[in-house]
Amino acid sequence: MKKKVAVVLLNLGGPDSLKAVGPFLFNLFHDPAILRISQPFRWLLAHLISRCRTKKAMAIYQKMGGKSPLLEHTQAQALALEQALQSHKTSVYRVFIAMRYWHPFTAETIHQVQQFDPDQVVLLPLYPQFSTTTTASSFKEWQQGCTQKNFKVPTQNVCCYFDDQDFIRAHSMILLPFYHQAKEYGQPRLLFSAHSLPQKVVDAGDPYQKHLEHSVQKIVSYLKEVLGHPIDYEIGYQSRVGPLSWLTPSTEDCLTKAGKEGVPVVVIPIAFVSEHSETLVELDEDYYEYSKKVGIPFYGRVPALGCHPFFIQSLVNQVLNQEPSYCCLGTQNPCPKMLARF
What we know:
Elements: E1 3-11, H1 21-30, H2 41-62, H3 70-85, E2 91-99, H4 106-116, E3 120-125, H5 135-148, E4 155-157, H6 165-182, E5 189-195, H7 199-203, H8 208-227, E6 232-238, H9 251-261, E7 265-269, H10 277-293, E8 299-301, H11 309-320, H12 336-339
Parallel strand pairs: 1-2, 1-3, 3-4, 5-6, 5-7, 7-8
Helix pairs in contact: 1-2, 3-11, 6-8, 6-11
């Protein structure tokens, strides 16, 4: 009898209506991995922040039709992954989706997985680069939910795949047409844009920044080999919230610099594998308008990986070639993948 494997795609989630924006924001900021303060102060602050940001966030989601498209994009990825896994006849694979801050919540997905009655569960985050604020938080939520439901089944955590060969190839192939288009305006600069993190989180041992840097280095090396010449590139961080010190340089600062130097820019959402507010509004609208303001001759935004065949193959790689679950889970213990490289 074939082994039954439940693959669970872990993602952030997004509001499915304008009414859901406020509750979604509260769930986000109430996560102890995001606001690292004790109760009841975390509840109070999450309530305050979500109330203050709801009106602005609603205007953003209004531009996208009144909701986030993230779930639909993740469903398409789940279907593509399940179809790709069907060729591996040794097991029966079913792909599920668990969102961290909106439906389908982790508890809902655990119930669905229980109905499937798998022999094994593979937790596969749609965060290629590990962070305590994303992957670790999702893992913890899953573990707590399984404990509450008394659901016990062998579970493998895929912690990160920032250097997977097919992940690198997917990014490289999808950005090349934009690179060639930008060359009509001069020597292009690749601007890899990622969601920022508070500096104190990175200083505490979170490997996110180093994972990002290594992803970028692998992509640039691949492109250099393909194109036969050095690549001009930079990493910028977007979506800063609050007064803390965050990772720098900001994406906006990188655009300012490119404007002063008069170079065309190709923006790559290196940490986002699906389209959502930070790509469709922040990158496509806000930074596009800013690029014109600072005099950038060409601004091209590369799509998120979505269902690109190489990216789906990268996900297949993770399901079939799982690494030890302890890899990045301790904030004080560097990812073993990084020890050999940095």
